[in-house]
Amino acid sequence: MKVTFLGTSGAVPTTERNPSALVLAREGERLLFDCGEGTQRQMMRYGTGFDVEHVFVTHLHGDHVLGLPGLIQTWDFNDREAPLAVHAPAGTRSRVETLLGATGERPSYPVRVTQVEPGDVVLACDEYEIRAFAVDHRTEAVGYALVEDERKGRFDRGKAEEELGIPPGPKYSKLHEGEPVEHDGRVIQPDEVVGPPRPGRRVVYTGDTRPTAATVDAAEDADLLIHDGTFGEDHRDRARETAHSTAGEAAELAAEAGAERLALTHISTRYTGRAHELEAEASERFDGEVFVADDGMQVTVPFPDADESLQIDRADA
Predict the structure, then answer these.
(1) Cys-Cys link to 83, which of 29, 36, 110, 268 (CB 3.0-4.6 A)?
(2) Which of the residues in the chain have pLDDT under 70?
């Protein structure tokens, strides 16, 4: 699973930071979260690919959605045929449809706008689902959590072959699928050679928000929490006024949720050239791994039981 940050700025872009957007790639599938102005160019620049079927919008402030009309038009120019689903908070469908039709032309492929509320399973797939959760911003807004299903336990081939005398073959597959098999006059139960289920991964994206209890719940034991970190403690009052979070507040929430890693994004232009200060503030309140996301940063998220650690590749590396 790989997260590519396409835009990590606050409401105002800079020469280093585009407005909000990120692509999450999983098993060959790509999901786009938010789509600030210039997102399609960032997708080209950082090589994420364009085969996206679902766009998840946290809220309708311009820095999170103004890239949608251009991206949808580009797909049309490229003779797209696959349908597109745009998911947005409840109460915003008519505004999203107006935005998508800003040029007065309809794309040649189907575009469906769905409205989501906190607690909804927005997308249910064979091995994961996308859930919406409540956030606290100045408009209709939600966050999104990608939650993978539990995986099968590890198959102990050595025990199966050496201790139980089962030769490699179809019986291995049946046991791993949870079916008992008969061998040498006895019934072998799956739990004799298959370990306990292994956890999947959880990646949580808040969009713009104050810290909320719902985010704590959504980010429980998250492998990666991507949280609004617009301000530092020097602008704590401004964070409250504008319904954003400070880096320290995001860190406290990550610690309460038991998240493994915290990525701070939506960085105010006030911290141009000194975003490391936000990282330092967060590190004082969160013992896990913490970093400020940059445009072009690619983060590979390992399984919770994997030996490897989180991998971060920076665009300028």
Answers:
(1) 110
(2) 316-317
